[in-house]
Write a structure and sequence with these properties.
Length: 116
Amino acid sequence: MRNFKELKVWQKARVLVKEVYLVSAKFPSEERYGITQQFRNATISISNNIAEGCGRRTDADFKRFIDISCGSATETENMTYLALDLNFIKTEEHQKLISAIEEIQKMLIGLYNSLN
């Protein structure tokens, strides 16, 4: 088993969760159970799957959870575009989130490839 707290990608994903919570707190109240919840859940899933994968005993299991984290990162990326399109976030907020997500995606792909 690995210690997920030592992985830089998990640390960055954790920071992203906080950023998404802060940004999405300003979304319209009628979106509380819609886009707001979906955006937050997708983002949380990135770090959760990294942590869960670290708790697995084989590299194959860990790799599968890293793959799921990649999917969650892509879903989070999509949610930022939806939030921008709906004018829930400003262009500057969108750019900041996209930069963080792309960095996490690159790190996840690197981690995934290192497990071959």
